[in-house]
């Protein structure tokens, strides 16, 4: 049997351990997900005189007691943040504007890209919190406001000193499933941009809200800041973010502001535990997107759903990424935050809409709830409502779409027990005819060659011997804790090699 010098084996193994991890890009085609369907509600809404105009990066929230969706602020078609508040009642599907008490007419200054969330605290507060955002002069704001759903007025939260600087485009918020019997709620803010400098995702803050909000006590809500210690993470802008429990999840976006458009977008993601400061960085799989939306999977049909998030919409540079046509078909990328695995699925669409699924768009506002939001069968599904955004051509939108997750589970076959019959549309769609198609490849990062063609790098890469003119965006890596050091990875390979001569 041929023998090789141990030094040669050591070199080979070390070389393999240091090669880019693009070839380890993986995707799950069997991760259980709910049966999913996109439904266009835009033409079914009433009260157009009170409806919001096309907006990007608006704030969105929901209150179950009043059954109202709130839309606040956002960037209009002229590029300036707005300050108007809109309400959409989900029983009547009618738009209106708030009717506050006569002496409570204050409202937040114009802003977009704020951190938001629902603040339910027993009988003391039932409100919608807005933290910071982008002002009309392009600077970051640091004030905090709360909208009282019951009495339809805004009140400024009295916040103690010592918090983060003004910022917009951060990741965070609150998990709306937080128990409302507590008198205090905690909102999370990670990263953000102040108009001149991007903060790292590892700059994590907690805002603790307490007090009473009512017409006779409009100034009794207070907040205090504390900071969470997290190891260094990249600076991010244009990323999607959400909160599951005490964990912040951030996906995609850009690492700098030096490049206009979507070409700066990368595909990395970070799962940040605020309870212990630990971070994992799942391998990339969806295309690097800018301005996408991220919501928890609140469907409780399967226990495995509780650790999932849905990565939807956004825009990407098709000269730098090949996503297999997924986003144009309404792709929902599903990340399991426990295992770090991705699945890419294509939901069923709306049979009555000109576009069966929403076109790709950045800055759409999305809110999800743990049951259906519209229709007469609310106990049989979980709904996510998506509003507005700006499409790839630069057109601002005021469409309202529903991503419905029916009570059930599908895996690789894409079918489920409730899916027989013809596909339905509208608020009362029951799941008939709904199937889910799993994509079998992660998106590939492209690089231009000297001949003007493109090749892909990743799990399905076609390698070219031609020199490249531009580097590809960040390719996928296998899931591992973000703070794993290079030395640790190298020494693990060395330990294997040191044992090898004993076997020769």
TrEMBL record:
SUPFAM superfamilies: Kelch motif. The keyword Transferase does not apply. Keywords: Signal. Residues 1-24 form the signal peptide. Residues 343-362, 450-475 are annotated as: Disordered. InterPro entries: Kelch-typ_b-propeller. Pfam families: Kelch_KLHDC2_KLHL20_DRC7. This is Expressed protein.
């Amino acid at each position: 049997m041929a023998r090789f010098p141990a030094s040669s084996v050591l070199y080979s193994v070390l070389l393999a351990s240091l090669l880019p991890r693009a070839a380890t890009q993986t995707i799950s085609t069997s991760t259980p997900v709910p049966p999913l369907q996109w439904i266009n509600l835009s033409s079914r809404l009433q009260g157009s005189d009170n409806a919001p105009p096309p907006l990007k990066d608006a704030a969105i929230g929901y209150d179950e007691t009043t059954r109202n969706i709130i839309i606040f602020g956002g960037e209009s078609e002229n590029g300036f943040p707005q300050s108007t508040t809109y309400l959409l009642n989900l029983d009547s599907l009618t738009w209106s504007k708030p009717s506050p008490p006569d002496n409570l007419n204050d409202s937040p200054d114009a802003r977009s890209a704020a951190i938001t969330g629902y603040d339910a605290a027993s009988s003391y507060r039932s409100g919608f919190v807005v933290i910071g955002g982008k002002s009309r002069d392009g600077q970051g704001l640091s004030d905090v406001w709360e909208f009282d759903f019951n009495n339809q007025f805004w009140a400024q939260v009295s916040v103690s000193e010592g918090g983060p600087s003004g910022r917009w485009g951060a990741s965070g918020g609150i998990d709306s499933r937080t128990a409302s019997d507590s008198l205090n709620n905690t909102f999370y803010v990670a990263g953000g941009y102040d108009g001149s400098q991007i903060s790292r995702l590892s700059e994590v803050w907690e805002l603790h809200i307490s007090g009473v909000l009512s017409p006779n006590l409009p100034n009794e809500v207070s907040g205090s800041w504390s900071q969470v210690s997290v190891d260094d993470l990249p600076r991010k802008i244009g990323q999607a973010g959400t909160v599951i429990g005490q964990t912040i999840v951030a996906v995609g976006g850009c690492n700098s502001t030096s490049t206009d458009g979507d070409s700066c977008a990368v595909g990395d993601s970070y799962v940040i535990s605020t309870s212990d400061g630990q971070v994992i960085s799942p391998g990339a799989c969806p295309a690097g997107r800018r301005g996408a939306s991220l919501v928890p999977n609140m469907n409780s049909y399967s226990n495995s759903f509780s650790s999932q998030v849905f990565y939807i919409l956004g825009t990407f540079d098709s000269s730098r990424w090949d996503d297999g046509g997924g986003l144009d078909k309404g792709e929902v990328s599903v990340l399991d935050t426990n295992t770090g695995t991705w699945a890419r699925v294509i939901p069923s669409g709306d049979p009555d809409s000109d576009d069966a699924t929403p076109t790709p768009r950045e800055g759409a506002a999305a809110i999800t709830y743990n049951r259906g939001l519209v229709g007469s069968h609310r106990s049989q599904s979980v709904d996510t409502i998506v509003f507005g955004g700006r499409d790839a051509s630069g057109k601002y939108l005021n469409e309202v779409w529903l991503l419905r997750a029916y009570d059930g589970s599908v895996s690789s076959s894409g079918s489920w027990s409730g899916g027989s019959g013809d596909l339905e549309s509208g608020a009362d769609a029951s799941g008939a005819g709904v199937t889910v198609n799993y994509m079998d490849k992660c998106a590939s990062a492209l690089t231009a060659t000297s001949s003007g063609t493109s090749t892909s790098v990743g799990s399905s890469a076609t390698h070219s011997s031609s020199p490249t003119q531009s580097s590809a965006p960040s390719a996928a890596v296998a899931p591992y804790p973000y703070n794993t050091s290079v030395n640790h990875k190298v020494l693990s390979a060395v330990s294997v090699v040191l044992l090898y001569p004993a076997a020769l």
